[in-house]
Specification:
elongated, 9 helices, alpha+beta, about 25% strand, 14 strands, binds biotin, 7-stranded mixed sheet
Length: about 325
């Protein structure tokens, strides 16, 4: 897929319309004025307002009376993010989709097209959200954060697990700051509340044996889901389900990107040790946890025994052998 054949990103003028409404919250702006400022017809303005309404943005009024919103809408369009991130590398290139198959798939293509370090891809809804080991990621419209970040870290592929760990730490800190809950981190990439998963990370990369061209870090966070599909019951949750109140996706996303920038810069400056130390501090799975590990070839039980310098997990197996886990599913074992 070349850039030309990428699915259509959100029309930048819808982004401008939303910013205009947000900047004038509580004020009625006439459809004609909006149309003039954006350079489209009043009919197009009305069509776009309907689109925003379908995403849950509460816009009052109609073409004759003018339009008004009551609070800053919780839609993850670039202008709303950029104005909060100032000079961040994550504010330079933001691709937003109302609906796309998978933000990771789009970001991978952008990576091959030489797109910049720090580019982010966001969707309000994914029709084929991807999880680890071929699973799908439930991506309900406007309920979650579905984001992929394109990074070009100057490192070899053996260090890539550290990028997953630091992304998990960023999501952890953002949730602590905004929601006040302390999630657990299940190595390598799950965030849990009360034992149920609400955030997953899918890291994909394009690399040579000694050099990474780019890494895509895909994060899915269940924010405002009010229920989970039957097949995820008992395993998955959302921030809203845990706290019985809705949360601003926009604020959480901005915090997440700030934390990601901080951890990434720290990793570049100081290497792995602070990332490993912080992960060990906040994850009950890093050390001393009895776990069942399922890989493509086998399932075994053991006790976690800390992280390797490159972020892989050490496990003391029940049969006495020490194993370094490269990939696999971890579950708490009785
Ligand atoms: C997992 O826990 O299995 C990883 C889930 C990762 C889901 C996110 S949502 C945004 C990005 N796009 C995708 O298709 N997947 C990741």
């Amino acid at each position: 897929m070349s850039l030309r054949s990428l699915p259509a990103t959100t029309d930048r003028r819808i982004d401008v319309l939303l910013a205009l409404l947000a900047d004038n919250a509580m004020i009625v702006i006439s459809g004609a004025k909006i149309a003039r400022q954006i350079g489209v017809t009043r009919w197009t303005v009305w069509r776009w307002i309907e689109k925003l309404r379908s995403l849950g943005v509460k816009v009052k009024g109609h073409p004759r009376t003018g339009y008004q919103i009551e609070k800053v809408p919780d839609v993850l369009v670039p202008s709303m993010i950029r104005r909060r991130l100032h000079n961040s590398p994550f504010a330079r290139r933001i691709y937003h989709f109302f609906k796309v198959d998978s933000t990771n798939t789009v970001a991978m293509h952008l990576g091959y097209e030489d797109e910049l370090h720090g580019t982010i891809v966001l969707a309000e809804e994914q029709t084929a959200g991807r999880g680890r080991v071929g699973r799908s990621w439930h991506s309900e419209k406007t309920s979650g954060i579905y984001m992929s970040v394109l990074l070009r870290p100057p490192m070899g592929p053996a260090e890539a697990p550290l990028i997953t760990l630091l992304a998990g730490l960023a999501a952890h800190d953002a949730v602590v700051e905004q929601v006040g809950l302390r999630p657990d981190l299940r190595w390598p990439n799950d965030l849990l509340l009360n034992g149920k998963k609400f955030c997953g990370i899918l890291t994909e990369m394009h690399a040579e044996p000694d050099h990474v061209h780019f890494v895509i870090v895909g994060l899915g966070i269940n924010v405002n889901h009010t229920r989970m599909p039957e097949e995820l019951l008992g395993m998955a949750t959302s921030l809203r389900m845990e706290t019985a109140r809705p949360h601003s996706r926009l604020e959480l996303l901005v915090r997440l990107l700030r934390c990601l920038e901080r951890y990434y810069n720290q990793f570049m400056a100081e290497g792995a040790p602070p990332i490993l130390a912080r992960f060990t501090e906040v994850s009950s799975y890093a050390r001393g946890k009895r776990v069942r590990i399922s890989t493509a070839n086998e399932t075994y039980v053991g006790t976690t025994a800390g992280l390797e310098p490159n972020g892989l997990l050490r496990v003391e197996r029940e049969d006495g052998r020490t194993q370094v886990v490269i990939s696999g599913d971890l579950a708490e074992a009785p």
